[in-house]
Amino acid sequence: MNAHSHARYEALLKVTGQARFEGEIAPAGLLHATLIEAPIACGELVSVDAVEAPTRPGFATLVTHDDSASLKSSAATTLIRETAIHFHGQPVALVAASTLAEAHDAARAVRIATAARPAVTQMDQALGAAIAPEMVGRFPAATRRGDVATALGEAELVIRNRYSTQVNNHHPMEPHVVVCWWEGPKAVVHTSTQAIFATRATIAQAFDMPPRNIRVLARFLGGGFGCKGQLWWPWMFWAMLASRKTGRPVRLELSRAQMFTLVGRRQQTEQDLALGFANGRLTAITHDVVAQTSAHTDYSDSTAVYSRLLYACPNVSTTHRLVRTNEPQPVPMRAPGTAPGTFALESAMDEAAERLGLDPLDLRVKNFADHDQETGRPWSSNSLLSCYRVGAERFGWADRQKRKKRDGRWTIGFGMATTLYPAIRQACRARVRLNGDASLVVQCGTQDMGSGTYTALGQIAADALGIPMAKVTVELGDTWLPDGPFSGGSQVTASIFPAVQSATAQLRAMLASMAASDANGPLGGKTSDDLDFEGELIRSRSSNAAERLSDVLARTAPDGLVAEGESAATDHPKLAATGMGHGAVFVEIGVDSALGEIRVRRVCAAFAAGRILNPLLARSQYVGGLIGGIGMALHEQTLTDRATGCILGKSFADYLIPVHADMPEFDIAMIEEDDPHLPGSVKGIGMLGSAGIQAAIASAVHDAIGKRIRHLPIRIEDCLGPACDTAQR
């Protein structure tokens, strides 16, 4: 299959306002809901006094933990079934009314009483109580190979430092929303979710009802990045209970402030990392991570996992520990684990290169891992060395020292780092229908959160059958469609590709048989191996004879043809050996000599992630990831008040994110790989851009001002003072 830069399938719908997001569904009799939040970080809900609320205009109902008692106990219902309060801002009730303003008014009339207990509001308050999880994502939390202590003791150089990353919050453009109603025993749920089938399964479990009686729809999402999943479900359940109590549709949408507390965050980390070297080669790595999790449930990113895999090293020890705090629960956030983990590892590699007198790129090439270090298996594909070469050439890395270090008030610095992410996929089913006029309908019950799933799904089928995208209809985001993957882990395209490929292969076989079985037709007697599908034609390679698809269908299948395909999930025990996506990120930054302001001026990144189906969409994903990485490196930080546990500055006025004025010049190189062990050689790309750039920026800041900064975000105050006298450099 050749790569084609098809424009987004849904682009016109979105820019003209025709794409209806789930929060825009407005059934008759719709009620609007709002949440009442706890004013303490730890304690108990004592009572809910709702005597006055029903007297307020438009009031419809109140939902509390008493109503949730009808739900089955599970991880998804714990917070709404109990009276324990685990974090400041935890909802304790939901009010529904005729309008949103009336719902807010009725909610203010509800009086709640709480009993506070001492809260752990910062990770440093409970380091002594840290616990060790068994798993971090799909990986063991702790591993050891070789004799790390001896190797570090005998190393010619040891780089040992602590690296810190702060909480980043999920803030997709579209907030979480649900519009739901009941049709007798059946539920219809329009909601912004990255996993419609997991949402359906969780509703079925909580409400003790068969999945076939639940329809979940998420046809368009305004972003997700890992937050539109399990943490949203409890409050969605309350909206469903309100709908069931009133017999009317209910709409609940989180405010931007509530997004800071209710939908997850990138967890805070403290990472102790040591690298040992002999003759410029890694002899030992220790990477010990302490991270924040919530008081009521555990979550851990796989932060140290990639230190086991990225470089050749015989002696490696990694651990993860968790500290429970009365703060919101972390969840995966784009490049979970990889982003904070590579910040530490790649920053240390840059420092080692300086101490060893080596070019940072040369040190990485010298320590390239030509096989999976954990299992000893060869990589099914690994083009990291090509990423280094291509990225360095396009950036001009070898000539960077010849460039001027001053540009007016800016002091210029250069840095680079490596990025990686596993190539994984989920089970998937897809249906392809070829209509009598040779138009296509492609169906899969996955969802598109803005990454281009509509386009990829249609393009895979269209290319396989030689049909233009203009004649393709794509249907997704509905549990009435074939089971599709959740949107996360950079695996949707890799998951849908083999399923759609299987369905279109069946259609090709049927069409070839029909065309070849007609002795009087232009392709009579031809074999399927001799036939190509292109330009809405079936063409013989040997004779160049051809027939239109629509003519074959009109003669043999006027009602069209339908085929379904399915694919299996990745075999996780063989995860590393089945390949990784890799990349090399090169950056140029400027530091204001007087103000300490940091600007990323130029980014050149080379990525190798299997076969690229659509270069236009791939570039968009890479650039989006790099922008998120810039935000993590220089802007984003969620602060919690130590005394109350309340998150401070719950708006974009205080929570800084990159804006258009912060954007550098992006140069993206895509290195295609042929990986016979992956269906279609397809790997995920969404996470690769989000990791690596943080360390590259930190190294570039050091190159500019001579100061090593080992925490994120790097702020103006980090670049001021005697140690950062950029005017004299």
Commentary on this structure:
- This protein is about 25% helix and about 25% strand.
- It has a 7-stranded mixed β-sheet with strand order 3-5-1-15-12-13-14, with helices on both faces. The protein has a 6-stranded mixed β-sheet with strand order 9-19-18-17-10-34, with helices on both faces. A 5-stranded mixed β-sheet has the order 20-21-29-30-33, with helices on both faces.
- The model has no long low-confidence stretch (mean pLDDT about 95).
- By secondary structure, it is an alpha+beta fold.
- The chain is built from 16 helices and 34 strands.
- Helix 9 crosses helix 10.
- The longest helix is centred in the last third of the chain and has 26 residues, at about 490-515.
- The chain has 4 domains: about 10-120 and about 175-220 and about 230-260, Alpha-Beta Complex (Aldehyde Oxidoreductase, domain 3), CATH 3.90.1170; about 125-170 and about 270-325, 2-Layer Sandwich (Aldehyde Oxidoreductase, domain 4), CATH 3.30.365; about 360-425 and about 575-720, Aldehyde oxidase/xanthine dehydrogenase, molybdopterin binding domain (Aldehyde Oxidoreductase, domain 4, 2-Layer Sandwich); about 430-570, 2-Layer Sandwich (Aldehyde Oxidoreductase, domain 4).
Question: What's the quick description here?
Answer:
With 729 residues, the protein is an alpha+beta fold. It has 4 domains: 12-118 and 175-221 and 229-260, Aldehyde oxidase/xanthine dehydrogenase, a/b hammerhead (Aldehyde Oxidoreductase, domain 3, Alpha-Beta Complex), CATH 3.90.1170.50; 123-169 and 268-325, Aldehyde Oxidoreductase, domain 4, CATH 3.30.365.10; 358-424 and 574-719, Aldehyde Oxidoreductase, domain 4, CATH 3.30.365; 432-569, Aldehyde Oxidoreductase, domain 4. The chain is built from 16 helices and 34 strands.
